[in-house]
Amino acid sequence: MSNETKPYAIGIDMGGTNTDIGLVDRDGHCLARKNLPMGRYTEIGAYVADVAAAIHQLVADRNLTFSEIAGAGIGAPNGNFFTGCIEHASNLVFTGVVPLAKLLGEQLPVPVALTNDANAAALGEKVYGGARNMNDFIVITLGTGVGSGIFADGKLVYGHDGFGGEVGHTILHPGGRLCTCGRKGCLEEYASARGIIQNYREVCEENRREAYIEADCRWLTEAANKGDMMAIRAWEVTAWHLGIGIANAATTLAPEAIFLMGGIINAGRWLFDPLRAIFNEHLLCMQKGKITILPTQLNANDAAILGAAALVQL
Predict the structure, then answer these.
(1) Distances in Å between the alpha carbon of 60 and those of 14, 104, 308?
(2) Which terminus of the chain is more exposed, N or C, with fewer CB under 10 A?
(3) Do both 91 and 155 map to the same domain?
(4) Strand partners, 149
(5) Which of 54, 13, 12, 20 is nearest to 37 (CA)?
(6) pLDDT of residue 90
(7) How far, CA to CA in Å, does 212 sit from each of 1, 65, 82, 194, 300?
(8) Residue range 204-263, pLDDT digits in tens
(9) Are both 121 and 142 inside the same structural domain?
(10) pTM over the 0.90 mark
(11) CA distance from start to end of the chain
(12) CATH code of 290's domain
């Protein structure tokens, strides 16, 4: 039985706080899942052993065998598809270059592949979501950072070293806010969760209003729904930066659609309405009317797991 006909895959979403592991069928249903809190680990060996044990348990609980599993896909921060390594991830306890695909592969009787979390998101949209019939599209993940996965001519863009397609680290404001990548003025610092809150604080300061000290993106959406002009303006500022950033990406890539993913999209019209206006205003003239901005078509609770699983099911 080839990987193309095996009915199941394992998706592993590795984050700084939790690792979510799911058993996924070819129709994009997450049939069962397990969660491993990352705070319990200080070294990679124990982590890999627990991930492997969780996968064995998921397979056994469904009365399956590994002959029915196409493989295990991992979506991870700074994951390099070419090497199977996590390389210098700032939000993981495991430092340096970690050969995670190799280590996990030694404990599983199926292939293991790894990529970064945003590329996994694009794969998930391609295999299970709204991009099934598209060859050219971009997925933008909005969360702690701003990630991106790009499909061009039906292929995921990795670049020559495995780290291509980083729209979130394109520079909008030279000399602007300091980014986690070490440079200044990246899109990520204006459209990530922390960037949005900074936008809100600056809007309040400019208007001589006191910012709500515990504001987060959910609160900003609720405040906008109640007519809070500072919250509404914060979403407009965010949309301006994101609109310019993805208009620049569209100029280079000419995608059919741009999908947004992550909890921030729950802002709904407060984000999408000004975003679409700014995007279309700054889009290259011959591209106007040809590119759609959409929320992800994947279930939010399963999106990251589905993306990782798609790595071995595509």
Answers:
(1) 22, 18, 20
(2) N
(3) no
(4) 139
(5) 20
(6) 78
(7) 58, 53, 45, 14, 28
(8) 999 999 999 999 999 999 999 999 999 999 999 999 999 999 999 999 999 999 999 999
(9) no
(10) yes
(11) 16
(12) 3.30.420.40
Query: What order of strands is seen across the sheet that includes strand 18-25?
Result: 30-37, 18-25, 8-14, 69-76, 112-116
User: What pLDDT was estimated at residue 274?
Assistant: 98
Indicate whether 267 and 194 sit together in one domain: yes
Q: Tokens representing 157? A: 């863009």
DSSP letter at 173? Answer: S
The DSSP 8-state label assigned to residue 285 in this structure reads G
Angle 229-248-277 (CA atoms, 0-180°, nearest 5)?
35
Position 259, amino acid: F
143 and 253 fall within a common domain: yes
**Is 43 in the same domain as 100?**
yes
Residue where the block lists tokens 């292929």: 155
The alpha-helical segments, DSSP class H, found in 180-264 are: 188-191, 193-206, 217-225, 229-253
Per-residue pLDDT at 3: 53
The domain in which residue 86 lies consists of 8-126+302-313
Tell me which amino acid residue 12 is. Answer: I
Report the distance separating Cα 308 and Cα 24, nearest Å.
10
The structure tokens 């003239």 sit at 285
Both 25 and 154 in one domain: the answer is no
Q: Are 90 and 180 in contact (CB under 8 A)?
A: yes
User: Looking at residue 264, what is its pLDDT?
Assistant: 95
